[in-house]
Specification:
This protein has one domain (2-384): Cytochrome p450, CATH 1.10.630.10. The chain contains 16 helices and 13 strands. It has helices spanning 18-24, 44-52, 87-95, 101-105, 108-124, 131-136, 138-148, 155-166, 172-195, 201-206, 213-226, 229-244, 246-253, 259-267, 299-303, 337-354; strands at 2-3, 27-31, 37-41, 56-57, 60-61, 71-72, 129-130, 274-278, 282-284, 287-289, 294-297, 359-360, 382-384. A 6-stranded mixed β-sheet has the order 1-2-3-11-8-4, covered by helices on one side. A 3-stranded antiparallel β-sheet has the order 7-13-12. Strands 5-6 form a two-stranded antiparallel sheet. Helix 12 (229-244) crosses helix 16. The longest helix has 24 residues, at 172-195. The chain is globular and about 60 Å long. Bound molecules: protoporphyrin IX containing FE (HEM). Residues 58, 80-81, 92, 144, 222-223, 226-227, 230-231, 234, 264, 269-270, 274, 326-328, 332, 334-336, 339-340 line the site of protoporphyrin IX containing FE.
């Protein structure tokens, strides 16, 4: 039995072994690090097929951490990332209008202000500066706090929780404790918003009578966590990749359209964490799959599939738009994708324009990469200019 190839040898590239599987066994039976077997799906067309097909359920949990058995779950009220249609659609319809390109573009001046303030603060610090702590992490934190209407001073409550969730070494107990702390904090915020609804998204949702407090808390948890660690890791790892590729960096600084999507495709920071469970017997890519069996999609393998675009292993920020799956596909495709693209564009362009001489302050091999993480990224990125 093949072991899941889940270790990146280069922070920018998919784990070695996935390309081979994609070419020869695009639906392969593999063992997970914590034990248990799943179907690993690596071809772009087949990954999209799984993510769009309602016969595959999102109500699954675990599979990686030491105490996390792979299992079907009953989603908590409001946790629509774990839900299947039609329940999933009820929440999506409620939230999608808040995340359209037009709505998100209203945040542009706010994001530009946050980015400029963080760059000002960075400029005042003694060098070298840790780009992750001083820029990549605070920018998305502040943006999601402003969007929801959660005071930024309270960010430690969810930054800790987001880290615990994204760390595959966290035990089930640690995850549950982090979730409980975050839920307790948000329950207080929701109560305050019900009393006196503020101008943020949480305030708007608190005005609705068709959402319970529990649903509101869970929606807020999901948005805080999903919108935080992902974007932060893309800013940090994206900056490091561009520092390795001066030609591409120059194009981003000049404002290349579509650079955010190409960085998302190339880095595929969310990978090998999206499980689905077959609700009935079915056939995928000629492989028979039984009801109750699990599939794991590799977004990085799909995004480097030669069938997706020419020369898929090359970073080309001027590449025409691709149908990459770095933000998922189908009904669960990232709710915050327009916001993520906008944040990435403003943050990276702002950073590269402010510090034309930006460079890493340690040899590239010494930049600490987050091992054993559900979302790929850097622990720290010491930079100077
Ligand atoms: C670069 C940053 C981001 C990446 C790479 C990313 C990636 C993804 C992926 C791959 C999914 C699909 C999950 C699945 O099918 O099970 C997803 C879903 C989701 N994302 Fe993002 N995301 C990012 C930023 C954001 C932001 C900024 C927000 C919120 C403001 C957000 C909120 C969500 C939510 C709520 C879902 C669940 C959608 C659903 O189940 O219908 N994400 N994201």
């Amino acid at each position: 039995m093949t072991a899941l190839p889940n270790e990146r040898t280069c922070p920018f590239d998919p784990p070695p072994g996935l390309a081979e599987l994609r070419a020869h066994r695009p639906v392969a039976r593999v063992t997970l690090p914590a034990g248990g077997e799943v179907w690993l799906v690596t071809r772009h067309d087949l990954v999209r097929e799984v993510l769009a097909d309602p016969r595959w359920s999102s109500s699954t949990d675990g599979g990686f951490g030491p105490d996390q058995p792979l299992r079907a779950i009953t989603p908590e009220p409001g946790m629509f990332i774990d839900m299947d249609p039609p329940e999933h659609g009820r929440y999506r319809r409620l939230l999608t209008p808040h995340f359209t390109v037009q709505r998100v573009n209203r945040f542009r001046p706010g994001i530009e202000r946050i980015v400029a303030e963080r760059l000002d603060a960075m400029e005042r610090l003694p060098r070298p500066v840790d780009l992750v702590a001083e820029f990549a992490l605070p920018v998305p934190s502040m943006v999601i706090c402003e969007l929801l209407g959660v005071p930024y001073e309270d960010r430690s409550a969810f930054q800790d929780a987001a880290r615990t969730f994204a760390d595959l070494g966290s035990s089930q107990g640690e995850i549950e404790a982090a979730m409980a702390r975050l839920a307790a904090y948000l329950a207080k915020r929701v109560a305050a918003e019900r009393d006196e609804p503020g101008g943020g998204l949480l305030g708007e949702l608190a005005r609705r009578e068709d959402l319970t407090d529990e649903e509101l808390v869970n929606i807020a948890i999901m948005l805080l966590i999903a919108g935080h660690e992902t974007t932060a890791n893309m800013i940090g790892l994206g900056a490091l990749l561009l520092l390795h590729r001066p030609d591409q960096l120059a194009r981003v600084r000049e404002g290349a359209q579509g650079a955010a999507d190409e960085l998302l495709r190339h880095l595929s920071i969310v990978d090998l964490v999206m499980f689905r469970m077959a609700k009935e017997d079915l056939v995928l890519g000629g492989q028979e799959i039984k009801a109750g069996e699990f599939a794991l999609t590799s977004l990085s393998a799909a995004n480097r599939d030669p069938a997706l675009c020419p020369d898929p292993d090359r970073l080309d920020v001027t590449r025409p738009k691709t149908a990459h799956v770095a933000l998922g596909f189908g009904p669960h495709q990232c709710l915050g994708q327009n916001l993520a693209r906008l944040e990435l564009e403003i943050a990276l362009q702002g950073l590269l324009r402010r510090f034309p001489g930006l460079r890493t302050a340690v040899p590239p091999a010494e930049v600490p990469v987050r091992e054993n993480a559900a979302i790929h990224g850097l622990v720290a990125l010491p930079v100077t200019w």
